[in-house]
Design brief:
By secondary structure, the protein is an alpha+beta fold. It folds into three domains: 90 residues, Double Stranded RNA Binding Domain (2-Layer Sandwich), CATH 3.30.160; 93 residues, Tyrosine recombinase, N-terminal domain (DNA polymerase, domain 1, Orthogonal Bundle); 209 residues, hpI Integrase, Chain A, CATH 1.10.443.10. Helix content is 49%, strand content 9%. It contains 17 helices and seven strands. The longest helix has 20 residues.
């Protein structure tokens, strides 16, 4: 078997025509008249003679060429065609270069949009992904390493946003798992990062849970002098105690005032299940007044800038600050804790009925199987009692009958009369 030396390869001079310097086992150096030196490998596959190119010297050295030859011979011995395998590898590399993390992430988001994921959830996901794009957005998703993902998460942790880093790891993992499921990646590297991130301290939403202070809050709300729609958002936040995003995105079409119920579709709910809210007499009166302001549009609480979008998520919190309630004392989400605490302390209602009205899902799978009941009749009674209790607290424990019609009288038209019919 002829064997080349590195000095032989380096010293090979061009001639008038091509010539070959053999290294044995099918490998040879092709020397061209223009001085280029190209590595070639001859082999036989299924009785056909073929030639495979390994690149040019000196970019591919003698040792590298021999390594490529040995790998090609192993493929031939296994019944494979090295030329075909090389084309497949190049095609795969081109696909991988196109399948960047950002490309796959956008594809995954589009899938969630088709599946009607709540817009507020999608917005949070997009925000988290946008923080990751500068570091890994243009990287082929199949080539992203655990170390690269950790670097992204550490950059978020460095700003003190430990909870955001934790949520980002979850979102990145979902993108990687989607890539695995669609054959664009082999594995999810975020799985190796469990325990690597700083665990954020539990942070509860600020809430007033003292009856006396709750009464002061309700009196302060009645004294609010800002935008009228914000006033109704404050009042109804207390009476309905739904999640802030559910309230501000409330649509008139979701209300059945004939049956005194608000039907929230599953796509708007955090736990992805449809939810019903009984409407007390006070709540009906408030919505009747609000109809005068926003009843011609889609949203009960439209944005101040355009009726095409709901109220900003910061509006109620900002109003609470104007009323003198500090960020650590009360929040828009805190109306839920206030209601949950005072309803439970009243001892009047089954805890499961309260949990159902809060749209909480039982985490214990066995217990959940036995608590499927809606407690609907009890919830109707509870919501009316809660509105009465808020009135009692607001008026210093003296219960006054609510003004069900309010100061704003409805327009005399068929649509409104039907909507608010008793």
């Amino acid at each position: 078997m002829a064997t080349l030396f590195a000095t032989t390869v380096a010293g090979a001079k061009p001639a008038d025509k091509d010539y070959k310097l053999s290294d044995g086992a099918g490998l040879y150096l092709l020397v061209r008249p223009n001085g280029s030196k190209l590595w070639r490998f001859n082999y036989v596959h299924h009785g056909k003679h073929r030639t495979l190119a390994f690149g040019a010297w000196p970019e591919v050295g003698l040792a590298d060429a021999r390594g490529k030859r040995d790998e090609a011979r192993r493929l031939v011995a296994a019944g494979l065609d090295p030329s075909h395998e090389e084309r497949v590898a190049r095609a795969k590399a081109r696909v991988e270069e196109h399948d960047t993390f950002k490309t796959i992430a956008k594809e995954w988001i589009a899938k969630n949009e088709r599946e009607n994921m709540a817009e507020i959830t999608l917005s949070k996901i997009r925000w988290l992904l946008h923080m990751a794009y500068p570091k890994i957005g243009t990287r082929p998703i199949a080539k992203i390493t655990t170390q690269e993902v950790l670097a992204v998460l550490r950059s978020v942790e460095a700003t003190g946003r430990y909870e955001s880093a934790r949520r980002m790891r979850s979102v990145l993992g979902r993108v990687f798992r989607y890539a695995v499921a669609t054959t664009r990646a082999e594995r999810d590297p975020t799985g190796d990062l469990r325990g690597a991130l700083t665990v954020p301290k539990a942070k509860h939403h600020a809430a007033i849970t003292n009856p006396k202070r709750a009464g002061e809050l309700m009196r302060a709300i009645e004294g609010y002098t800002g935008h009228a729609i914000t006033l109704y958002a404050l009042r109804l936040s207390a009476h309905l105690f739904v999640r802030p995003g559910e309230l501000r995105q409330a649509e008139w079409a979701e209300f059945d005032f004939d049956r005194s119920v608000w039907n929230l579709p599953a796509e708007k709910m955090k736990m992805r299940g449809a939810h019903r809210v009984p409407l007390s007499m006070q709540v009906r009166a408030l919505f009747e007044e609000l109809w005068e302001l926003t009843g011609t549009g889609r949203y009960c609480f439209p944005s101040f800038r355009t009726e095409l979008h709901p109220m900003s998520e910061n509006t109620v919190n900002a109003a609470l600050r104007v009323l003198g309630f500090a960020q650590e004392e009360m929040s828009a989400h805190g109306f839920r804790a206030m209601a949950a605490t005072l309803l439970n302390e009243s001892g009047r209602f089954h805890p499961d009925a309260i949990e159902r009205q809060l749209a909480h899902v039982e985490r214990d799978g066995v217990r959940r199987a036995y608590t499927r009941g809606e407690y609907w009749n009890e919830r109707i009674t509870m919501m009316q009692w809660w509105s009465d209790e808020l009135d009692r607290l607001r008026n210093g424990a003296k219960l006054l009958k609510p003004n069900f019609r309010g100061t704003a009288q409805p327009q005399e038209n068929e649509g409104q009369s039907r909507r608010f019919a008793s």
